[in-house]
Each structure stands twice: as C-alpha cells, then as structure tokens.
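Sharing in case it's useful to others searching the archive later.

Someone asked me privately for the predicted structure of Carbohydrate esterase family 4 protein, so I'm posting the question and my answer publicly. Question first, with the sequence:
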Amino acid sequence: MVSRSLRGILLAFWMVALQVNALTPEWMTAAQARGRLVTQCTVPGTVGMTFDDGPHVYTKEIVDLLKSYNATATFFLAGSNYDCIYSEAAVSRVKYAYDSGMHLASHAWSHGNLAEMDPPAIHDEMYRIEPRNPTEALLKIVGVSPAFMRPPYGSYNQYVLDAAYLRGQAVVLWDFDSGDSTGATPDDSIRSYEDSIRKRPSTILALNHDTYESTAHQVIPDVLPNLKAAGYQIVDVAACLGQVKYQEVGEPSPRDSTWHC
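And my answer, the predicted structure tokens:
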C-alpha cells in the first residue's frame, strides 16, 4: 500500500508529466501516444490470439499447442493472481513462453478493477513503486519491458489510459470473447469461434484465458486448425498491429531478495 504522502507525490508527478508529454515513447507516433486504445487488429488476415490471467498450470501446454501450428499469442500476465509471478513454477512458465517466441504483456499486478481505483492506486498497480509490479517482474525474469497492457476485466477509464501512456504502453481490449471466463461451456466457445469464422472478418482479436483446463484441452485444440483452414494467420497482438513487441529488451536479472510478492 502506498503512503498518503507518496500518493500525493505520485499524483503531482502524474499531472506534470501529462501536461508536458515528457514520457512519450519514441517508438509511438503522435497518433498512437496518449490514451491509445486497441480494440481490433489492423493487419488483414490475422487473428490476434490472447490469453489472460496467467501464468498458470496450462500455460506451457497452450504454448506447445501454438508452436505446433506455427502460431504465436500474447500472454497478458498478472503479478499476483492465481500464483505469485516470482514463484519457481511461475518463473519457469514465463521463461518457457518467452523462449518459445510468445509475446508477454502486462495484466497489472493484483487483477483489481483499475477503473474503480484512484490515480495513485492505478499508478501503484502499473508502475515500479516496489517489486510488486508485473512490468518490473518481466524485466527481472526475462529482460523485457512490455509495450502493451490489458486492464483486468477490460475495465478502464481515462486515468487508466493516462497511466498506460506514462508507461509507454497501449491498452488492449478485444473484439471476440471466447466466453471461457464468463460461464461458456467448451462447446459454446467453439461455436462462437465457428460463428466468427463464418462471418469472415478481416481480423479477429480474441480473448481467452490460460487458466481454464477446458480452454487448454478442448477449445484451443479445436479452433486453431479451423482458423488455419479459414486462411488466418494466428499471431500475437504486436504482429496483428504491425508493432514492436517490447519497449526494451535486455538480459534477465539473477534471483534475489526482491523476487517476492
């Protein structure tokens, strides 16, 4: 929890930075800067495949399945949701996904509803206030700083867009929901994909979760060949937008006392 005095300092910094546009990342054009919200892919013929809420026990299986179809996906990772991202198991899953060519992005730290938080609290979820930050965690674990984030539940407001802007990140939603997190059965999810494919949209930005056994073992194995047969290229968010994956790529850090939740 951020102290009252620090929250005041952070809010003041926030307002000054927004006013002077001091932190606009070089890789963004002016039109892509403050408040950029992504709701669909822009590269024709692509499916931006995404998985939220991990890392989880099914992450590696989904990664292997994607690789078998020469596909990639974006994994929006939380810092402390089902597991602490610094646990040995979670670190292994994050590294495996990254080393397998998957795209890693931020899903905030605690999976809280960012739109219900005040600006300093949003800041605390997304910035490097302390080691509890998925952006910092990804720098430590695999050496990357993400260029994209997805707010939990897809819930956002202007404060959330501003926070992402200050971090140099685009906010990513979706235009297709498999429904795996909202009660859809595997058959329901598969039918939803089939219905979408029949409509032949130029692009699809698909929301899934790598935290459900049925998604890993039933839905994704069924839909990947169908998407391929329909002529779609199954890629990550960066590829379906024609953008770079990360703001920074470096070397991971050795595990130390800061690797905790």
